[in-house]
Amino acid sequence: VDAAGNAYVATWAAPARIREHAAVFQDGLVPLPGDPALPAVIDSDILLTKLDGTGARVWSRVVGSEHEDEPYAVRVHADAVAVVGRSRRFPGFDNTAWDALVTETSVNGDASASATLRFDASSILLGVDARPAGGWLLAGSDGWSQNPDGLSILDYGASLLAELPALAAAPVRRSLTPGPRQNEL
Predict the structure, then answer these.
(1) Given strand 69-77, what is the order of strands in its sheet?
(2) pLDDT of residue 131
(3) Nearest to 54 by CA among 17, 5, 97
(4) Confidence of residue 100 (pLDDT cuts 50, 70, 90)
(5) Which helix (H) or strand (E) holds 20?
(6) What does pLDDT average to over the chain?
(7) Which residues contact 48 (CB under 8 A, 6 or more apart)?
(8) What is the C-alpha to C-alpha distance for residues 122 and 95, in angstroms, rounded to an integer?
């Protein structure tokens, strides 16, 4: 929620969900372009919606990368909305590797960009906050692998805390003491 009481909601959106949304709201939303090397593979995106203080929809946008994306946290600060989560490293239904995903959209919905960040093995972002100097503070887990035939995450991994000064900048990882299981932040 921003200072004016507007709420921002990010949901996983398969192409069919985006088409259904566009049919209801007549806003022309379409899925993002996929991997040009594999035009037959159609992956999901993220549907980001802004609601005013009364719950009325202000706008919706499709955000994410060229591969499958999953949102896990949203933060609005000043004139930007960050959505973080994970993006499938390989297109299609390959569960073996995921990269951290950060998208940034203006609070007016008129500009959006995304970055996938490779850390160690697979990574996921589960939290985001604004840095006082600009950019984002990212929290999650990395160094894990996922069952390629299912959704279970194996029991190793490392806590992930990183600063991202700008979407196009390299993330700066902060050291943390290991914790139990997937070491998620």
Answers:
(1) 69-77, 80-88, 98-106, 112-117
(2) 95
(3) 5
(4) very high
(5) helix 15-25
(6) 89
(7) 8, 9, 10, 60, 61, 62, 63, 74, 81, 83, 103, 105
(8) 10
Secondary-structure percent of the chain, ordered helix, strand, coil, rounded to 5:
5, 45, 50
pLDDT of residue 149: 66
* Three-point CA angle 47, 27, 9, nearest 5°: 25
Average pLDDT over every residue of 11-37: 94
Handedness of CA 106, 131, 64, 114 (dihedral sign): positive
Cβ atoms 27, 49 nearer than 8 A: no
Question: What is the identity of the amino acid at 52?
Answer: D
Q: Using the predicted structure, report yes or no on whether residue 182 has a pLDDT greater than 60.
A: no
B/e letters for 173-184, b = 16+ CB within 10 Å, e = fewer, are beeeeeeeebbb
Q: Is 27 left (phi over 0), alpha (psi -120 to 50) or beta?
A: alpha
Question: Where do we find the tokens 């398969």?
Answer: 14
Return the H-helix or E-strand segment holding 70. Answer: strand 69-77
Token match 């049919």: residue?
A: 23
Global pTM?
A: 0.91
